[in-house]
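Page 37, continued from 36.
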């Protein structure tokens, strides 16, 4: 199953939902969130979103479903 890449429009929608400070595409942040401490693997995400409410989580998941992310 194919998935949709994160576009500038989708990134703007994420900022609208969660706030500009809760959305990042900064390379250092992507590297940090693209790995854990269990193995030496890196799966860099396209964007990191840190919602602050359950309503934001719900809206982000609805957006992701609509765009097949």
């Amino acid at each position: 199953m194919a998935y949709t890449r994160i576009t500038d429009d989708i990134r703007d929608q994420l900022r609208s939902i969660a706030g500009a400070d809760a959305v990042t595409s900064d390379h250092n942040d992507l590297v940090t969130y693209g790995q854990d401490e269990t193995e030496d693997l890196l799966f860099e995400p396209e964007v990191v979103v840190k919602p602050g409410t359950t309503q934001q989580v719900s809206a982000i998941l609805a957006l992701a479903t609509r765009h097949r992310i």
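The mean pLDDT is 94. Flag for discussion at group meeting. Strands lie at 23-24, 48-49.
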